Amino acid sequence: MNVNGKTNVLGLLGDPVEHTMSPLIHNTLSDSLGMNNIYIPLQTKADGLEAAVKGAYALNILGLNVTVPHKYHVMQYLSELDDGAKAIGAVNTLVRTETGYKGYNTDMMGLSRELDSYHIQLEGRQVIILGAGGAAKAVAYLCMYRRAGRIYILNRTVDKAEKLAEDMNGFFGRDTITAMSLSDYRNLPKERYIVFQATSIGLQPDADKVIIEDTDFYSLVETGIDLIYNPFETRFMKLCRESGASAYNGLKMLLYQGVIAYELWNHIQVPEDIADQVYRKLKKKTRKNIVLIGFMGSGKTTIGKALQETLQYQFLDTDTYIEEQTGQTIANIFAEKGEAYFRNLETKVLTDLQETVSHTIISTGGGMPLREENAELLSMLGEVIYLNIDAGEVRKRLAEDTDRPLLQSKNREEKVRDMLAYRAPFYRRCSDLVIDVAGKSVKDITDEIQHVMK
Ligand code: NDP
């Protein structure tokens, strides 16, 4: 990024702003599109909001995002409001005009584009919205705008659901929304629904929680969309999938609310391949997986389990995963079906994991990075760390191990040296970080990984 006299400034007003993903979205867009913009977080206290909006205008700031707790209060300082933002009663994007900033709600537009990307149509469909907070308002507006059939809003505080139903029915002039108490879900007509999970239940670190536990409820779900994206697969999504429904998280909503804001600020259309580049970065960043690669004996399992304990993550070993899925040992798969068959299984595992795991240490089979498509899948899965080991150390560590199918050779040492020399460039190609493990304790290595990951 080359900041100069012509650089446009974009930013985020909110409090707190430390954990925002918005700079990643917008600065990646500027880099990829070659636009001379810079996006920065601007922590703003409630009592300084008016001064911040006026000051930003005076400073020629091109555009702003607005987040918690200012999405409602900021509206009084704007020169104009988009219709959607007016109906929803919340603004997350300010676009510079000649008379001041105009407010938009790109959360709602972002969700709309997410649904398009998954080919989910709302027109004439029966919908359930769980929650009646700020995000649920955007969902309700979109469902009304897209002419969903019947819409049920279920909320713990039923008054809030009733108010939202009344506002939206009034705004659109149709009596489409019914408000219900969350605990009344058993009274819903027995149909198949598109269900939006718009409460804050299930967010990391409470990833084991879900707004409705009862599996009977999930038999009503045809498509579940959780607005939460951290964890990547929420418990709500798991329960939907277990009952045979399709399920999606809210990461694309986050992506597209940013993309649409960027389009409004710059009067451009962001090409889909560039939006996809940003999505991959977001996915990698939010999932927080650590993928360990390297030669057999490099310590992927030992280091992985030690990291699991310190970081309080899950641990997944791809070889164990394959053995559990197939009911066969790796040695048996090699002996009965051959190496090519095993490599296909590895690619399938990596593909399956793309839509599920987060906050997980993934220890991989030593040959996994050799396939071109696996390298790509590994790098999308998380931060890839290559545990680099030399042939002498491998010989020492595996002296007693006679089970490894690929090391069945008379001259084992030479075989290890040849394999290492061949594989090292593949390991390096897909790694974000290389750690030399020889002579280091498990603690040295886990400390080094944690230090760099910070
Ligand atoms: P709000 O605080 O405005 O609303 C929270 C909602 O969750 C309310 O309906 C509230 O019910 C319900 N809720 C909270 N705690 C409980 C509980 N213990 N039991 C039952 N219900 C509960 O939050 P938002 O609407 O702004 O956000 C909701 C979710 O959507 C968040 O998880 C957020 O991360 C996500 N989101 C995702 C976006 C994306 O880009 N993907 C964008 C915006 C939000 P009650 O009214 O009874 O308190």
Give the topology, please.
Layout (H helix, E strand, L loop, with lengths): L7 E7 L7 H12 L3 E7 L5 H10 L4 E4 L13 E2 L1 H6 L4 E4 L4 E4 L1 H12 L9 E4 L3 H12 L5 E5 L2 H15 L4 E5 L11 E5 L17 H4 L2 E6 L8 H8 L3 E3 L2 H16 L5 H16 L2 E4 L6 H12 L2 E4 H9 L3 H8 L1 H15 L6 E4 L8 H10 L1 E6 L2 H7 L14 H18 L3 E4 L5 H12 L1
Parallel strand pairs: 1-2, 1-3, 4-6, 7-8, 7-10, 8-9, 10-11, 11-12, 13-15, 13-16, 14-15, 16-17
Antiparallel strand pairs: 3-5, 5-6
Helix pairs in contact: 1-9, 1-10, 4-5, 4-9, 5-6, 9-10, 11-18, 12-14, 13-14, 14-15, 16-17
The protein binds NADPH dihydro-nicotinamide-adenine-dinucleotide phosphate.
Distance between the termini: 22 Å
CATH class of the largest domain: Alpha Beta
**What is the annotated CATH architecture of the largest domain?**
3-Layer(aba) Sandwich
Oligomer status? single chain
Main sheet strand line-up: 2-1-3-5-6-4
pLDDT averaged over residues = 94
Unique bound compounds: NADPH dihydro-nicotinamide-adenine-dinucleotide phosphate
Number of domains: 3
Summed up, the helix count is 18
The rough form would be described as: globular
Catalogue the unreliable spans: none
CATH superfamily of the largest domain, called what? P-loop containing nucleotide triphosphate hydrolases
The biggest beta sheet reads: 6 strands, mixed
Helix content: 40-55%
The proportion of strand residues reads 15-25%
At CATH level 3, the topology of the largest domain is: Rossmann fold
